[in-house]
């Protein structure tokens, strides 16, 4: 029983991180209708960015947590202005292919510059211990990563649902013609939202740097799990990304504990079951999926 | 011009081009085909060395394009040694990326042997890819010297007359690492391994070795490959409080595992043993994360003056320090060229005969011998301990060699499963 609770706690901690990592994917899809396949590459750029920042300027984890997402925001804005916007009116498949191509390009550029073995990164000071409660124990960093991720998810959800800015953004994407008729410059809002989604991927990357291998390929497999998270939660739904993140974290932890060889397969079995029962995901809008 | 006329002309143009290229191929076949006369006994009057490895994926840094540099160094040294009396006056390197896929390795090997006239294929990290190349070598009756792959099948059940295994295999890693750690008192083990050919092979070799040395393996945990999150696997690996947790992962998975192990409560309770580690892994994770970890290294650049001298030359060309795979590729290429020189021929059967049973002592193979029974190239290997940050005196100086494991101890005797044919 003790170990079951321990696995549960580990699953929840991993789930919080999955929620944040998938959040940008959900925001970009929910607002722009773009399936951003380059999310994994942007997550990788975030982690590589943190490692490069440490190596070249000696700026550690905490400054990176702020600087890297800002840089990634600018990168996202450029990506939207230069590439994505031209395909927005076409079938979503076009942007999917565009971002897929971009992923290959980014991964190869990083490989060329930094090799394939990966970059070193240390745990931030103060978060290197373990927190033990009876028979339960969890690394301090894992707890921090989970709580921090949840806080970011709550803030993003609040901004999008409770503020005027959020209302405009949602209106602009749900019915851009009518919103335009009300005198709102829709284009002005779409670009920053895309940049924001990319910044979230970068933020997740920085958060991953201390406990994951920082390699050019780190996002390639991870993005597949993130797609499972958003499909389970419902494409475009923030609450869905959070719930999906926790579900995937838990299922993965139980899989690792009780059926190690199938630890990743169970995630996709869960996804298949959800899609069969509710094609639009747990919290997705009907007609979106 | 009517459409039908245009089509007819297009057809004639294609036909002319086809006939032209056929004629060209026939001409080049005449001048480039196997020699029927002349003084040289080399096919096409040259030696072609094929380097088939991972040039873009996870194994790129530990071998990859820099192995071509190492092979070129071997060619330069061969030419410098023999000058005008060299049998092989023209030596070429052809390279290909197998992308860690057995099917790609298979077709690339075929292309190298058939179309690029490779006399020898070198390296081929990734066990599945290596086994595919070994099959091609057998079918084409041409040489293959494996360096990068660790599977014992190459010199076991799937061995063949034309395949040699140069640097290390999973049994050697297990013998050195598990044997030593159990000997030092780390008797109870839990093993975590990636669930594919190499991982399964490693798990088997380590389990056998731990038990053989008087230890016990509580559980062997298979993990999906690749994997990012090992948290629960690590908790599970701590069940039964083993003295040693052995990880058999490689590349990015190894780094993920070690980072997360170091952040778990298991750190300090159980010793971490790493099955296969390359110096590039230590470089990418930083010595701090690995400090104190013991592992078997077939060769280390800073072991002695001889190694360092070669490593300095390598660094001049690549601006980095060599892994054991780079050094082994050099050694394999040079010894092949020496064999060609001695036989004054590149006939594969002749070379195989001259290599079998040969005793070699170079900077890579210490007390080396090409075992005639299974074509495993045995040599002294080393038990290394990762230094602490304070002990590192220069870049890439990450390992302290604690023990030399003599060839006879490091390599188990052939188990009889290899039938060379």
Describe the structure.
The complex is a heterodimer of chains A (289) and B (421). Chain A has one domain. Chain A is 74% helix and 3% strand. Chain A contains eleven helices and two strands. Chain A has a two-stranded antiparallel sheet with strand order 1-2. In chain B, strand 3, helix 4 and strand 4 form a beta-alpha-beta unit. At the A-B interface, helix 1, helix 9 and helix 10 of A face strand 7, helix 7, helix 8 and helix 9 of B.
Could you give a short description of this structure?
Chain A is mainly alpha-helical and 289 residues long.
Name a few traits of the molecule.
heterodimer, A: 289 residues, mainly alpha, two-stranded antiparallel ribbon, 74% helix, B: 421 residues, alpha/beta, Rossmann fold, 2 domains, five-stranded parallel beta sheet, four-stranded parallel beta sheet, globular
How is the topology of this model organized?
The complex is a heterodimer of chains A (289) and B (421).
Chain A: H1 2-32, H2 39-57, H3 61-87, H4 92-114, E1 130-133, E2 136-139, H5 140-162, H6 164-174, H7 176-181, H8 186-208, H9 218-233, H10 238-258, H11 265-277
Antiparallel strand pairs in A: 1-2
Helix pairs in contact in A: 1-5, 1-8, 1-9, 1-10, 2-3, 2-4, 2-8, 2-9, 3-8, 5-6, 6-8, 9-10, 9-11
Chain B: H1 3-32, E1 47-53, H2 66-82, E2 91-97, H3 102-114, E3 120-123, H4 127-140, E4 143-146, E5 163-165, H5 170-183, E6 188-194, H6 197-212, E7 216-223, H7 231-237, E8 244-247, H8 251-262, E9 271-274, H9 279-285, H10 287-290, E10 294-297, H11 305-318, H12 324-343, H13 348-355, E11 359-360, E12 368-370, E13 377-378, E14 381-386, E15 399-405, H14 407-410
Parallel strand pairs in B: 1-2, 1-3, 3-4, 4-5, 6-7, 6-8, 8-9
Antiparallel strand pairs in B: 10-14, 11-12, 12-13, 14-15
